[in-house]
Design a protein that fits this description.
single chain; 152 residues; mainly alpha; 2 domains; 9 helices; 0% strand; elongated
């Protein structure tokens, strides 16, 4: 779906198959049909519009759609482009999660329950965020919860 060489590699059927296969929950049946029509119209539009011709990446195409306000016209294409651009981040996050799970489960010799594993993985995966939380603040929060439990 790259805009290189005046969209020569832009194949509507292949893109629609991509949506069916990888993004079935992101588009309903009506949107999938409408997307095919939007893609065909988009190709016609690109041949006429000079601002869409000299693009070389998906990011440039997405930015151009926003600047020219075509993201409102081709809203399904815009959604698909954004999904495609976030795919590498999703894959990296998943791989990082499995890597973390392997480290944690190996170290603790598979003796923990799933709830404790989930909590530990969340802290480990989001360690940049958790590094900003002081131990004293956590201890104070637990003391507050404990004192509230005595009241009831």
């Amino acid at each position: 779906m790259t805009p290189k060489d005046s969209y020569k590699a832009f194949d509507v059927d292949t893109i629609c198959t991509l949506v069916e296969k990888y993004y079935p929950m992101d588009f309903n049946d009506q949107e999938k049909i409408h997307l095919c029509y939007q893609l065909e119209q988009f190709i016609v539009d690109t041949l006429k519009e000079s601002s869409l011709k000299n693009l070389s990446t998906i990011q440039e195409l997405c930015s151009c759609l926003v600047v020219t306000k075509r993201n409102k016209i081709y809203f399904l294409i815009d959604r698909l482009l954004r999904l495609i651009m976030t795919l590498p981040v999703s894959i990296a996050t998943t791989e990082r999660s499995f890597s973390t799970m392997k480290i944690i489960k190996t170290r603790l010799r598979n003796k923990m329950g799933s709830g404790f594993l989930n909590d530990g993985m969340t802290i480990y995966i989001e360690r940049e965020i958790s590094a900003n939380i002081s131990y004293e603040l956590v201890i104070d929060d637990f003391k507050l919860v404990e004192s509230c439990n005595y009241l009831f």
